[in-house]
Amino acid sequence: MSNSVSKWFAAFLAVLLLYMVPAAESARRQDDLSRIVVYQSVTKFVDSVRTKGYVSPQMYQDFTRELDATGNLYEITMEHQHKKYHPEYMDPADPQTFQNQFSVVYDAYYEDEILKQLFPDTGLPLDHDDRKYKLTAGDFFQVGVRSLNRTPSLVLFDALTGSNSGDRSAISFPYGGMVLNEDY
User: Fold this and answer.
1) Which residues make Cβ contacts (< 8 Å) with residue 157, sequence separation at least 6?
2) Strand, coil or helix: what is 116?
3) 29, 28, 51, 31: which is closest to 39 by C-alpha?
4) 122-127-130-135 Cα dihedral, nearest 10 degrees
5) Cβ–Cβ < 8 Å for 136, 183
6) Could you tell me which of 56, 23, 41, 66 has the C-alpha nearest to residue 153?
7) pLDDT tens for each residue of 16-52
8) Model-level pTM greater than 0.85?
Protein backbone atom coordinates (compact mmCIF):
# COMPACT_ATOMS: atom_id res chain seq x y z
CA MET A 1 0.00 0.00 0.00
CA SER A 2 2.69 2.49 0.94
CA ASN A 3 4.60 1.60 -2.23
CA SER A 4 1.66 2.65 -4.44
CA VAL A 5 1.20 5.88 -2.49
CA SER A 6 4.85 6.77 -3.00
CA LYS A 7 4.54 6.01 -6.72
CA TRP A 8 1.49 8.29 -7.00
CA PHE A 9 3.31 11.00 -5.08
CA ALA A 10 6.38 10.63 -7.31
CA ALA A 11 4.19 10.85 -10.43
CA PHE A 12 2.45 13.95 -9.07
CA LEU A 13 5.78 15.54 -8.21
CA ALA A 14 7.15 14.71 -11.68
CA VAL A 15 4.14 16.31 -13.39
CA LEU A 16 4.49 19.33 -11.15
CA LEU A 17 8.21 19.73 -11.86
CA LEU A 18 8.04 18.91 -15.57
CA TYR A 19 4.98 20.94 -16.55
CA MET A 20 3.64 23.31 -13.91
CA VAL A 21 6.88 24.96 -12.78
CA PRO A 22 8.12 25.73 -16.32
CA ALA A 23 4.66 27.03 -17.27
CA ALA A 24 4.63 29.27 -14.19
CA GLU A 25 8.13 30.52 -14.95
CA SER A 26 7.17 31.25 -18.56
CA ALA A 27 4.09 33.17 -17.40
CA ARG A 28 6.21 35.12 -14.89
CA ARG A 29 8.61 36.10 -17.67
CA GLN A 30 5.67 37.23 -19.80
CA ASP A 31 4.56 39.48 -16.93
CA ASP A 32 8.10 40.86 -16.68
CA LEU A 33 8.09 41.64 -20.40
CA SER A 34 4.69 43.32 -20.04
CA ARG A 35 6.03 45.43 -17.16
CA ILE A 36 8.97 46.51 -19.32
CA VAL A 37 6.68 47.47 -22.21
CA VAL A 38 4.38 49.41 -19.86
CA TYR A 39 7.36 51.16 -18.25
CA GLN A 40 8.81 52.18 -21.62
CA SER A 41 5.45 53.24 -23.07
CA VAL A 42 4.45 55.35 -20.08
CA THR A 43 7.82 57.06 -19.74
CA LYS A 44 7.99 57.76 -23.49
CA PHE A 45 4.44 59.18 -23.55
CA VAL A 46 4.82 61.33 -20.42
CA ASP A 47 8.27 62.59 -21.37
CA SER A 48 7.08 63.57 -24.85
CA VAL A 49 4.10 65.41 -23.32
CA ARG A 50 6.40 67.17 -20.85
CA THR A 51 8.83 68.30 -23.57
CA LYS A 52 6.23 69.21 -26.20
CA GLY A 53 3.69 70.79 -23.85
CA TYR A 54 0.66 69.12 -25.39
CA VAL A 55 -1.12 65.80 -25.88
CA SER A 56 -2.27 65.01 -29.41
CA PRO A 57 -4.75 62.30 -30.40
CA GLN A 58 -2.01 60.51 -32.34
CA MET A 59 0.30 60.46 -29.30
CA TYR A 60 -2.46 59.01 -27.12
CA GLN A 61 -3.45 56.39 -29.71
CA ASP A 62 0.18 55.30 -30.14
CA PHE A 63 0.46 55.01 -26.35
CA THR A 64 -2.65 52.83 -26.02
CA ARG A 65 -1.60 50.72 -29.01
CA GLU A 66 1.73 49.94 -27.33
CA LEU A 67 -0.09 48.93 -24.15
CA ASP A 68 -2.52 46.74 -26.09
CA ALA A 69 0.42 44.82 -27.57
CA THR A 70 1.01 43.20 -24.16
CA GLY A 71 -2.35 41.41 -24.32
CA ASN A 72 -3.52 42.80 -20.97
CA LEU A 73 -6.34 45.21 -20.15
CA TYR A 74 -5.29 48.48 -18.51
CA GLU A 75 -6.89 51.33 -16.66
CA ILE A 76 -5.21 54.57 -17.70
CA THR A 77 -5.47 57.63 -15.48
CA MET A 78 -4.19 61.04 -16.51
CA GLU A 79 -3.92 64.13 -14.37
CA HIS A 80 -2.95 67.65 -15.39
CA GLN A 81 -2.32 70.17 -12.62
CA HIS A 82 -2.33 73.71 -13.99
CA LYS A 83 -0.36 76.20 -11.91
CA LYS A 84 -1.98 79.54 -11.11
CA TYR A 85 -0.76 82.49 -9.07
CA HIS A 86 -3.26 84.42 -6.97
CA PRO A 87 -2.32 87.79 -5.45
CA GLU A 88 -3.03 88.09 -1.74
CA TYR A 89 -4.92 91.11 -0.40
CA MET A 90 -5.71 92.24 3.15
CA ASP A 91 -9.23 93.01 1.98
CA PRO A 92 -10.30 91.09 -1.17
CA ALA A 93 -12.79 93.83 -2.05
CA ASP A 94 -10.07 96.53 -2.04
CA PRO A 95 -7.27 96.04 -4.63
CA GLN A 96 -5.18 98.72 -2.83
CA THR A 97 -4.43 96.34 0.05
CA PHE A 98 -2.06 94.11 -1.95
CA GLN A 99 0.42 92.37 0.41
CA ASN A 100 3.21 91.85 -2.17
CA GLN A 101 2.63 88.09 -2.01
CA PHE A 102 1.23 85.48 -4.31
CA SER A 103 -0.19 82.09 -3.44
CA VAL A 104 0.23 79.16 -5.81
CA VAL A 105 -2.92 77.19 -6.62
CA TYR A 106 -3.19 74.10 -8.83
CA ASP A 107 -6.32 73.41 -10.87
CA ALA A 108 -6.56 69.68 -11.58
CA TYR A 109 -7.90 68.23 -14.84
CA TYR A 110 -8.39 64.51 -15.30
CA GLU A 111 -8.70 62.05 -18.18
CA ASP A 112 -12.35 62.91 -18.85
CA GLU A 113 -11.53 66.53 -19.72
CA ILE A 114 -8.34 65.55 -21.56
CA LEU A 115 -10.04 62.87 -23.69
CA LYS A 116 -12.95 65.21 -24.42
CA GLN A 117 -10.45 67.67 -25.93
CA LEU A 118 -8.58 64.95 -27.86
CA PHE A 119 -11.65 63.16 -29.23
CA PRO A 120 -14.52 65.65 -29.56
CA ASP A 121 -17.85 64.85 -31.17
CA THR A 122 -17.01 67.12 -34.11
CA GLY A 123 -15.64 65.80 -37.38
CA LEU A 124 -12.22 67.43 -37.08
CA PRO A 125 -9.33 65.44 -38.55
CA LEU A 126 -7.00 63.66 -36.14
CA ASP A 127 -4.10 66.04 -36.75
CA HIS A 128 -6.13 69.26 -36.35
CA ASP A 129 -4.61 71.80 -33.95
CA ASP A 130 -7.91 72.25 -32.04
CA ARG A 131 -7.75 68.60 -30.92
CA LYS A 132 -4.49 69.07 -29.01
CA TYR A 133 -4.70 69.29 -25.24
CA LYS A 134 -2.25 72.07 -24.42
CA LEU A 135 -0.33 72.47 -21.18
CA THR A 136 1.78 75.33 -19.84
CA ALA A 137 5.40 75.21 -18.71
CA GLY A 138 5.43 74.68 -14.96
CA ASP A 139 2.28 72.53 -14.93
CA PHE A 140 2.39 68.94 -13.72
CA PHE A 141 1.33 65.98 -15.84
CA GLN A 142 1.00 62.45 -14.51
CA VAL A 143 -0.14 59.14 -16.00
CA GLY A 144 -0.96 55.98 -14.09
CA VAL A 145 -1.40 52.57 -15.68
CA ARG A 146 -2.85 49.60 -13.81
CA SER A 147 -3.67 46.16 -15.19
CA LEU A 148 -7.27 45.06 -14.79
CA ASN A 149 -7.07 41.39 -15.73
CA ARG A 150 -5.53 38.48 -13.87
CA THR A 151 -2.45 37.44 -15.77
CA PRO A 152 -1.57 33.76 -16.28
CA SER A 153 1.30 34.24 -13.86
CA LEU A 154 -1.08 35.21 -11.05
CA VAL A 155 -3.42 32.35 -11.87
CA LEU A 156 -0.61 29.77 -11.82
CA PHE A 157 0.92 31.29 -8.68
CA ASP A 158 -2.43 31.06 -6.90
CA ALA A 159 -2.88 27.45 -8.10
CA LEU A 160 0.59 26.34 -7.01
CA THR A 161 0.56 28.06 -3.63
CA GLY A 162 -3.13 27.70 -2.81
CA SER A 163 -3.42 31.43 -2.18
CA ASN A 164 -5.84 34.02 -3.51
CA SER A 165 -4.32 37.23 -4.82
CA GLY A 166 -7.79 38.73 -5.30
CA ASP A 167 -8.06 41.96 -7.27
CA ARG A 168 -4.37 42.77 -6.94
CA SER A 169 -3.07 44.14 -10.21
CA ALA A 170 -0.01 42.44 -11.65
CA ILE A 171 1.21 45.61 -13.38
CA SER A 172 0.93 49.09 -11.93
CA PHE A 173 3.05 52.05 -12.94
CA PRO A 174 2.59 55.76 -12.15
CA TYR A 175 4.85 58.34 -13.76
CA GLY A 176 4.81 62.08 -14.21
CA GLY A 177 6.56 65.37 -13.76
CA MET A 178 6.69 69.05 -14.56
CA VAL A 179 5.98 70.31 -18.08
CA LEU A 180 9.25 71.74 -19.37
CA ASN A 181 8.34 73.30 -22.71
CA GLU A 182 5.49 74.67 -24.82
CA ASP A 183 6.19 73.51 -28.36
CA TYR A 184 2.89 74.45 -29.99
Assistant:
1) 24, 28, 163, 165
2) helix
3) 31
4) 130
5) no
6) 23
7) 777 777 887 888 898 889 999 999 999 999 999 999 9
8) no
